[in-house]
Amino acid sequence: MPPECARAGLVEDDPVMGGSIVQRLELEGWDVTWWQTGREAITGLGRVAGSLDLVICDIRLPDMSGEAVFEEMSRQPDTPPFLFVTGFAEIDQAVRLMRGGAVDFMTKPFAMDDFLKRIESGRRSSRSGMRLKEYVLGQSPAIQHAEDLIHRYAPHDLPVLITGETGSGKEVAARLLHQVSARAEQPFVAVNCAAIPADLLESEIFGHEKGAFTGAHQRHLGYAERARGGTLFLDEIGEMSAALQVKLLRLVENESFTRLGGETPIFFRARIVAATHRALAPGQASGFREDLYFRLAVLPVDIPPLRLRAEDIIWMLEHFLESAAERTDTRIRGFSALTVEVALAHLWPGNVRELRNRVDRAVALTSSEWIMPGDLFPDRLGNEPRSDFLSLADARDAAERRHIEQALDQTEGQVIKAAELLGIGRSTLWEKMTRLGVRR
Question: Which residues make Cβ contacts (< 8 Å) with residue 7, sequence separation at least 6?
Fold first, then answer.
C-alpha cells in the first residue's frame, strides 16, 4: 500500500486497459491522472510532473510514441520516474529506454500483482519535502505543483524567488516555505520594497548607527538583522532601486552586511525569499540586475493566477466563507448555485486577495442565508455586458464537470458506480473525465 497522497500519471490510449489500471491503483490508494494521447500527457505533465511519484506510459499512442513523451519530459526539471508498458515488446527498445533513464519496462498482458510490485519499486524512492499536512494553497494541480516545490525547497538554504500576479498569494507561499523549514521557530520578517520610500529602504533593511545621517539619534537594527536565523521576505523586489540592488547582491554573495554609518561586518544568517509580480528575467527590459536575478532565482516557484485555477475558486469561496462567518452572528448556509456559476465565470483580476475581499463584504452585507450573485458582485450591474462571460459550450462543460465530480464524491470515487449514477457507460465517463480534467 503506497503512502497517503501517492500520485501516478498514466499515459494509455486503450480505454479498457486504462480504466482497469486506474481502478486498481485507486483501490490501492493511489491518486491517478490519466491521459489518452501523447500530446495530452506532455501538456498535463508539464503542470504536475513534480508532484508525481511515477508515470506509467504505453509505448504506442495514437499521435506519438511513449518514448517521444519520455524524451520531451526528460528535458524538464524534476522528471518523475517512467515505467513503460507495451504489447509489442522489443528488446532493443527496452534496453534503450532503460539506458535513457526509465525505471522499468513491462510487456502486456501482465499479472496485476507483479505490476503493483514493479510500480512500488519504481516510484520515487523518497519524496523530499513531503507535506506535513494537506495542501494549504489550493486544490488545483497547478497550485499543488507549486506547493510541492515549496516543500522540496524547504530543507535548503538557497534563495527562493516567488513570481505571480498581484494578489495571487506570494506572501502566503513564502510563509508556508518558512513554516515547513527548519527555520520555523525563527522570525519571518516581511519587507514590502514598494511600500517603503527608496531613500529609507536601505536603512530599514540594513539598519544604521547613531549619527549615520541627520535624525539618526540612536542605533537602528534593520530587517536583515532582526530576521536572525529565520526568513527575510523581500516582497516586490522588482521595485528596488539600482543602487540598493548592488548592496543586496553583496549581502547574498558575502553573507554579511554593515549598518549605515558602521564599519563592523555583521554575519547574515537568514534565508532570503524574494517575490515579484514583474518579469525580471534577462531580456525582459525590467531594469533589474541580471547578476542579482540569478542569485535570487536559484530556486524559482510561480504562483498561477486564480483565473487558471477553477478548482481553487470554489475551494477558496468555502474556505473564506467559513473564516468570515466565524466573525459574525449571521447564519449563512453557503453560496447559491447561481453565485458559484458567476464566480467561476469571473476573471478575478485581483486574484485571491479580491476573492477574499468579496467574500468578507458579502458576509457582512447579506440579509439571506444564501449568498447571492448580487452579494458577491454588488458592483456589477445586472444588464451590463461582461467580457468574462462564459460561452455556452464552456458553461455546459463547467456544469458537466461539477456534476461528474458530485457523482464521484457520492460514490467515493468509484468510477463504475458513478457511471451508473450518471446513466452513461464507464468508457464514456473516463473520456469525459479526461477531456474535462476531472481527477479522482
Answer: 30, 31, 32, 33, 48, 51, 52, 53
Sequence letter at residue 364: A
Q: What is the DSSP letter of 247?
A: H
Q: Which residue's entry shows cell 477531456?
A: 435
Q: Residues 337, 341, 346, 352: is their CA dihedral positive or negative?
A: positive
Averaged pLDDT score across all residues of the chain: 85
The length of the chain is 440
Angstrom distance (rounded) from CA 360 to CA 404: 30
Which residues make beta-bridge pairs with 35? 11
Question: d(Cα 148, Cα 142) in Å, to the nearest integer?
Answer: 10
Highest mean pLDDT among 142-151, 196-205, 279-288: 196-205
| Mean pLDDT for the stretch of residues 327-334 | 79
Whether residue 2 has pLDDT greater than 60 = no
Q: What is the mean pLDDT of residues 409-435?
A: 79
CA dihedral (371, 375, 377, 383) positive or negative: positive
Q: Where are the beta strands (DSSP E) in 119-246?
A: 160-164, 188-192, 231-235
Backbone Cα Rg of the chain = 25
Residue 306 CA to residue 143 CA, distance in Å, equals 10
- Local structure of residue 49 (DSSP, 8 states): G
How far, rounded to the nearest angstrom, does the alpha carbon of residue 1 sit from its chain's CA centroid? 26
Bridge partners for 164 per DSSP: 303
Distance of CA 57 to the CA centre of its chain: 24
* DSSP state string for 68-112: HHHHHHHTSTTPPPEEEEESS--HHHHHHHHHHT-SEEEESS--H
pLDDT at 271 over 90: yes
Cα–Cα distance between 324 and 317 in angstroms, integer? 10
Q: How far is CA 433 from CA 11, 401, 437, in A?
A: 14, 8, 6
Query: Can you tell me the distance from the alpha carbon of 275 to that of 176, in angstroms, rounded to the nearest whole number?
Result: 14
Q: Is 65 helix (H, G, I), strand (E, B) or coil?
A: strand
Cα(164)–Cα(162) distance, rounded to whole angstroms?
7
Summarize pLDDT for 29-52 with one digit per residue, the tens: 888 999 999 999 998 888 888 778
Residue 201, exposed/middle/buried by CB under 10 A (0-12, 13-18, 19+)? buried
C-alpha cell, 128? 523530499
Among residues 282, 274, 67, 96, the alpha carbon closest in space to that of 191 is found at 274
The one-letter amino acid at 31: D
Neighbouring CB atoms inside 10 A of 29's CB total: 12
Strands 266-267, 256-257: parallel, antiparallel or unpaired by DSSP?
antiparallel
